[in-house]
Request: fold
Amino acid sequence: MDLGLTGRVALVLASTGGLGAAIATALAEEGAHVVVCGRDRGRAEALAATLPSATGVEVDVTAPDAAAGLLAATRDAYGDPDVLVLNGPGPAPSRAADLDADGARAATDTLLVPHVDLVRQALPAMRSRGWGRVLAVGSSGVEAPLPNLTASNVGRAALAAYLKTLAAEVAADGVTVNMLLPGRIATDRVAALDEAAAARQGRSLDDVQAASRAAIPVGRYGEPAEFGAVGAFLCSARASYVTGGLVRCDGGLLANL
Reply:
């Protein structure tokens, strides 16, 4: 299937590793011009160098002028973005009873505010062209809040509510808005969470990972490339009638409908 992404311009946040890198790679393989970005310039440029048409940009998305700077860098390289992939680092584990006001602010300052600012500035060009894709990397915690990941649950759920509202406002302009929910994908972030759980529970890492696999109907962690492929489809011309959705890529992990 031709996804219709050849020549499209994609800006992918937090894409120097993990799920962001997986989506950036999938988009590039489908012919898109990709802007890889993250706090480490070396990692951004190194990944970009492996892709067919990509450039690496250093950015701290929480900085006040980050959105304007990213869009300027994208326009300088390829033009206005057709595809905007929102992604951010997962907050540190925390219990709900321990979350204070500063922690709640930090969750939204990291996972909501920068994305709203970037979307607001990128949308006019998408709407004027009658084509655009906004995709956020979320978490299964949006639909089923995860124990000990309170800040992530809060920040990503707030972003999901914003995007759902936005989707209805821009659908008639040819812009789709979705959130992709990973389950247990084999990334460094998931490995770190497994290690933290093992230490907290006084169990071996092998035991923790075996229990996680047992809870997933397909019986294994997902591969980043599998997640990236779903992300590329949602950003494609073929997904023009998919908007306002929470799409799972979790091996059947969540039991709720």
Summary: The first helix runs from residue 18 to 29.
